[in-house]
Every structure is written in C-alpha cells, then in structure tokens.
Amino acid sequence: MIKVSYYFDNQTIPKNVTNEEQRFVLLRLQSEVEVPRTKLNLCFVLDKSGSMDGEPIENLKRAVKDVVDLMEEEDRVSVILFDSEARVLISNSPLDRKKEIKNRIEEIDALGGTCIDEGLEKGIEQIEVFKEKEYVNWLILLTDGKNEHGDDEKCLYLAKEARKRSISITALGLGKYWDPTLLEKIADLSSGRMFYLENPEDLRERFKKELQMLKNIAFKDLVLKVKLSPIARFSELNPGFVVTPQIQRVEPLWNGEEWEFEVGNMSRNSEKLVLLHMFLKAPPHPYINKVAEMTLQYKDLNGKTSNTESHTLIIEVTELYSPQINQEVREVIDRISVYLQQQIVESLLEENKPNEALTVLQTMEHTVMKLEDEELKGLIEENIEKIKEEGTISEDLRLKTKVQTKMVMEE
C-alpha cells in the first residue's frame, strides 16, 4: 500500500484577504510493503553514430551485456540501434537465450549520424510487442549527440505517447555534445529519468543502477487526483512538481471532474515527494475552510488498480494573522527555485547576457548555502568564477550543473 500525508508551507490565511494568497502543498508518498521482484519489459535504444566509435561503443556493449547477465529469464529485452536511421537489432525476446543475445550485441559497430526519434519510435513498437499487465515497461535511451538527422518535436510527441502506454524512458547523455533540453523533456514527459555520463567508463555502472532501480519498482502509473474547492486554483505557470528522485514539472490534466497529476512509479519501501502550487481566494467560513479533496490512484505489479483513502486539505483562518511556516516545505521550494533559476541562467547565456546570468547564479549560491548541499554549492561557485573570468561557462560544466540541480536523491 501507499501512505499519503500533506503539509502546507503556511497552514493559515488572513480573515479579510483582498488578493489571492499563494500556497504550496508538499505531499509525501510512502510505500510500505514488500513485493516480489519486478518483471521487466526493457528496451535499449542505442546511438551507434560515428562519434561513438572506439571506447564509447565498446563500453556500451559491455554495459548492455552486463544488464542482460543480471536480468531474469522471465524478463523481456529488445535492442534498437540508431544512427541516421534506426533498425531492430534484437526483437522483443525472453532472457532464456542470453548467449545468443550477447553475441548479437557484440556485433554493434559505430557509423553514421544521429536520429533519435526513429530509435524511440521503433523502441516503443518493440515494447508494445509484449504488453502484459504484471510487467514494468521501460526504455533506456543512450546518445552522445544532438538529433541532427531527426525531428525534436517528434521525440516529444513519442515521449508523451510512451507515457500514455505506461512506458517510461531513462534518457542518458554521454560526453558533452548532446542536447540536455531535449533529453530532459523526453525523460520528464514519460515520467522517466535523465543522467549525464561524463566518460564512456561510466556506462556500465549507470546501466546497472538503472536495472537495480527497475527491479525495485513496487507500484506503477501513480496518478494524484485533486478536486479543488471554489476558493482554490492551481498556478498556471508551475502547477506541480515531482521532487524526488529528480525534479520534474508536472502539468495536470482535467478529466471533467477533477485534476490529475501523473507522478510516475514508486520503489518498495521508499518515499516520493510531490509539490503543488496554488492560489487561494478569501475564505467564506470564519475558522476552517476546505481547499481540496485528494486521492492517489496506483497499480500494483499484477496490474490491479487501487486508490488511497481520500484526504481533505484544509486551511485555517486567523483574525490576527501570523504566518506558520513549515521549514521542510520551504526547503523543497528552495530546491525547486534553484532548479528553475539554472534554466534562466542557461537562457541568459544563450542570449549572450553573462552579467545577468551572474546575478542569477549569485542568488542561487545564497539559496544553496541554506540547503547545505556542498556538491551543488561547489558547482555554482565554479559557474560564478568562470563567468567572471571568461564571460561564459564550458559545455561540460553546464551539463553537470543542470543535472545536479535536477537531482534531489538517487534511488
């Protein structure tokens, strides 16, 4: 089962408020059950373009074969290769022929350009070949380049289609010449994950970690359903975020009766944080007012759909207003602020506005000091130093900073 609890950043509101009041609600989802190991329907979509020649392609082959060795016979695997076009190397198969599968993987060589969308399309098709309700469907995308022979908009469309079909995508960028904006959107739109791999030697460890994460999934297709009261509305700009393990902006969908936030999957004995951003009008009642009704829908590993009990979110009205700030919620807000500010820095640097980018980075530095994240603090200080010295930031430092601001915890 999944337990849900919630906390406002400020549980009170003034009695005679004239303008809308901004409020944040932090939801803590906790899985509290031991379940059997997950059955996987896993597809690798792998870049084999010319830039992957040498150590990258050799390390990639080792990484995929490592995962094949660790998978169970009842799992399913498929492999798609793409350069300027895509082809199926291994069609959707059980793992009872591991030696044959690994021999096919060893045949991979590097040649050609990069067309990510064709790879994604064929990958989704292969997962769809075997869709059983007790399996987790996942696609691992690896590229070291930009989508020069493809269509970025089609990539985003396919990521949305994957999510509709209960397929999530881990998007992995190798080296420093891939498109982090595109890969992040692919991951976020499919309720997946994104990582930056600095060196080819990092591939084997990252692939093993992804397999471990997938094998620990206990609940899938989580949907937070929220019915707002007349005094409440969601922010139009940033209505919600999945916070852990990686920050992802979530756009709610209206089903005719309530708002639905798709918030991905959950591992066994784990915790997921979700932040909702809303605005409240003057409350009609003098003491306690309902803000929303909320339930969480999810599927277990057998595909059975369940719902948590309904939660009523309330706000307290005070005559003599004194904000009651929840520090845990404020820390989550600060963390998301740093993530959003990093995106602003990227835009300013693209517009050749280093001084404005420096100002935003200095604000980020102040916020991160409160979060006591030494690794992120060091990265931001390095960003500031580079802009002061050179007027810009190197590509690899940008990638590291982007991924580190997005990452809250490793599953």
Could you explain the architecture of this structure?
With 411 residues, this protein is of the alpha+beta class. It folds into 3 domains: 2-35 and 218-323, Immunoglobulin-like; 39-215, Rossmann fold, CATH 3.40.50; 328-406, no CATH class. Helices cover 36% and strands 32% of the residues. It is built from 10 helices and 19 strands. It has helices at 55-70, 98-106, 116-129, 152-164, 180-189, 203-215, 327-350, 354-371, 374-390, 395-406, and strands at 2-8, 12-14, 21-31, 39-47, 76-82, 86-94, 135-143, 167-174, 193-197, 217-228, 232-234, 240-242, 248-249, 253-254, 259-267, 271-280, 288-299, 305-307, 311-318. Strands 2, 10, 14, 15, 17, 18 and 19 form a 7-stranded mixed sheet that branches. Strands 1, 3, 11, 12, 13 and 16 form a 6-stranded antiparallel sheet that branches. Strand 12 and strand 13 (248-249) form a beta hairpin. Helix 4 packs parallel to helix 5 (180-189), helix 7 (327-350) runs antiparallel to helix 10 and helix 8 packs antiparallel against helix 9 (374-390). The longest helix is centred in the last third of the chain and has 24 residues, at 327-350. The chain is globular. The model has no long low-confidence stretch (mean pLDDT 95).
